[in-house]
Each structure stands twice: as C-alpha cells, then as structure tokens.
Design a protein that fits this description.
Oligomer: single chain
Mean pLDDT: 97
Number of strands: 5
Structural class: alpha+beta
Radius of gyration: 13 Å
Shape: globular
Strand content: 15-25%
Largest sheet: 5 strands, antiparallel
Helix content: 10-25%
Bound molecules: adenosine monophosphate, zinc ion
Length: about 110
C-alpha cells in the first residue's frame, strides 16, 4: 500500500502545492503550527532521515534549497524560519515518507 505523501505526489490526493520540480514537491501542511508551514518531500519514497545514504546527498541539498526558495517566496527569509526533520517515535514522526517542515511567519517557541 502506498503512503499518503506518495499519493499526493501522484496527484491521487489533493494538496495545496506551492512548488514542484523533477525531484521534490512542496505543499502546505494540513495542520499548520505556524502561519507558514510547508512540507517539502522527495518524489521518491524514502521513509526517514535514517534511510538516507551518501548517494542521497544531492537530494537532501535539493530539499533544503527548495525550502530556502519557498521561504523567500513566502517572504519569511528576513524574519526567519525553522527547518525540521522528525525521525521516529520520540520525534513524533507520523508519516513515514521523508519530509522537511518549513515553519515561520511568527516568533517560534523553542521546544
Ligand atoms: P511528522 O510529524 O514530522 O511526521 O509530520 C507529518 C505532517 O504531515 C504533519 O504536520 C501533518 O499535519 C502533515 N500531514 C498529514 N497528512 C497531510 C496531508 N494529507 N496534507 C498535508 N499535510 C499532511
Ligand atoms: Zn511515500
């Protein structure tokens, strides 16, 4: 069975997409914790940060540089933003498809 983010990538489930290229898709989080809360995901199914290897270096860079570009478009690059990868149970990862959270648009509390 395919995961929910793979279904969004295949456009089988609707999402509010803000950016897309050959490698990544970015869409608004359905349950935002900040005025700007966007998820950037690789188009290939990788379960988590723990499943990344050296060969994925360019993909990881693509995720982070996409977040930087979206932050500029959303006009939070001057005020600041936070990028988060949750991995596993203690971090509260709920979707087992690698995703980078881009959050900002307000002063973010630290844990
Ligand atoms: P994490 O806790 O790091 O696994 O984050 C998963 C995130 O995915 C949560 O912030 C959810 O609100 C978000 N999410 C789950 N389903 C969807 C969906 N269908 N569209 C957009 N965001 C989603
Ligand atoms: Zn997936």
């Amino acid at each position: 069975m395919e995961c929910i983010f793979c279904k969004i990538i295949k456009k089988e489930i609707a999402a509010d997409i803000v950016f897309e290229n050959g490698k990544v898709l970015a869409f608004k989080d359905i349950n935002p914790i900040a005025p700007v809360h966007i998820l950037i995901v690789p188009k290939v199914h990788i379960p988590s940060v723990d499943h990344l290897g050296k060969k994925d270096g360019s993909l990881v860079s693509e995720l982070i540089l996409s977040a930087q570009k979206i932050a500029r478009e959303q006009k939070i690059d001057k005020s600041g933003y936070r990028l988060i990868f949750n991995m596993g149970k203690d971090a509260g990862q709920t979707v087992d498809h690698l995703h980078l959270h881009l959050t900002g648009g307000k002063k973010l509390p630290w844990l």
